[in-house]
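Design job #97: recover the sequence.
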């Protein structure tokens, strides 16, 4: 399995996802600024991987705080937290991980800065290990929804690159295949940054899964002309009513799946659920720079001066979502009720 990010010695090592699929470049760093830049520029990406990176990032931000006062340690923590949370606004995992780390800081009032940093590193490693376990559980629960012979359509990248384990939506695909099911996948290329083409196609090929790459605007035609059994996608933030933010274009896929009576599943750990937001309208949606659309990957494809609207995510209303696969099982509408239940299970750890 590819490790999107790892703690090694006193720093992190991550695969630079902007270089894939043509180059497999790993970056090692002890600098929070390098990690923060990597998150902002999508060298590290995918909601669960962002949570893990954020947790390790806090530890990197405290690299020089071993010999300081408790007060200085706390102010260094806040500086690191604010740099990390300024990188990308939509994926809740980033904020969720920083909050978990802050909890450790608060519980460490009686510890020396060195011991506190040790505890923070332990927590970051726990977040990483738990994410790996959550991916495996999502894969197992989700695979039960996959028929023996299945054609699956997916959008963006939700594999090992995007998480600390086998992935979320993609773990469902790989688990079903590992169970001996006959799986074919249509992967949307995922404009403008091509996570589907560059990353999902690459990962699924490595798994030996029968994957066919399509442009985003081919999905409706594929649903009409080929037999698609189900759609499964990941999530960056799920509101309390089940409305789901995910990579731009997910909403289109959900609408056309409904029109073709194809189940549309979202796969995400409970760390991606933001129960504090009543509905998806409250989810902040990141807007990225125009050049990603007008000259993505170095070739100018639009006239200079044209106006561009480039949101990185959209929000799929809950009415299009057949079920959400979490590490605690598959939940179904009404989501305002089932999300409360699954969050209780998450707190109790059952
Ligand atoms: O902008 P990205 O590449 O970070 O967006 C990623 C997605 O939208 C994924 O579908 C989502 O984070 C789930 S990853 C398991």
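Job complete. Output follows.
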């Amino acid at each position: 399995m590819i490790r999107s990010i790892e703690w090694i010695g006193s720093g992190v090592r991550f695969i630079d996802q902007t270089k894939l699929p043509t180059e497999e470049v790993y970056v090692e760093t002890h600098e929070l600024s390098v990690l923060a830049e990597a998150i902002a520029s999508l060298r590290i990406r995918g909601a669960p991987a962002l949570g893990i990176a954020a947790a390790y990032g806090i530890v990197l931000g405290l690299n020089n705080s071993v010999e300081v006062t408790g007060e200085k340690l706390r102010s260094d923590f806040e500086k690191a937290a604010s740099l990390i949370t300024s990188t990308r606004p939509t994926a809740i995992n980033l904020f969720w991980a920083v909050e978990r780390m802050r909890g450790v800081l608060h519980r460490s009032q009686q510890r020396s800065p060195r011991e506190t940093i040790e505890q923070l590193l332990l927590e970051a490693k726990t977040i990483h290990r738990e994410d790996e376990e959550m991916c495996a559980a999502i894969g197992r629960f989700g695979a039960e929804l996959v028929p023996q012979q299945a054609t699956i359509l997916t959008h963006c990248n939700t594999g090992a690159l995007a998480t600390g384990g086998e992935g979320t939506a993609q773990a469902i695909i790989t688990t079903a295949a590992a169970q001996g099911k006959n799986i074919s996948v249509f992967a949307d290329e995922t404009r403008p940054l091509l996570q589907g083409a560059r990353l999902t196609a690459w990962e699924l090929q490595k798994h030996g899964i029968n994957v066919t790459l399509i442009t985003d605007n081919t999905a409706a035609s594929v649903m009409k002309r080929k037999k698609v059994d189900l759609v499964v996608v990941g999530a960056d933030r799920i509101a309390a009513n089940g409305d789901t933010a995910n990579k731009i274009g997910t909403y289109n896929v959900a609408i056309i799946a409904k029109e073709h009576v194809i189940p549309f599943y979202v796969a995400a750990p409970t760390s991606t659920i933001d129960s504090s937001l009543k509905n998806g309208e409250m989810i902040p949606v990141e807007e990225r720079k125009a050049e990603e659309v007008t000259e993505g990957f170095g070739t100018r494809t639009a006239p200079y001066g044209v106006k561009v609207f480039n949101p990185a995510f959209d929000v799929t209303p809950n009415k299009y979502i057949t079920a959400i696969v979490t590490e605690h099982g598959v939940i179904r509408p009404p989501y305002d009720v089932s999300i409360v239940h699954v969050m209780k299970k998450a707190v109790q750890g059952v």
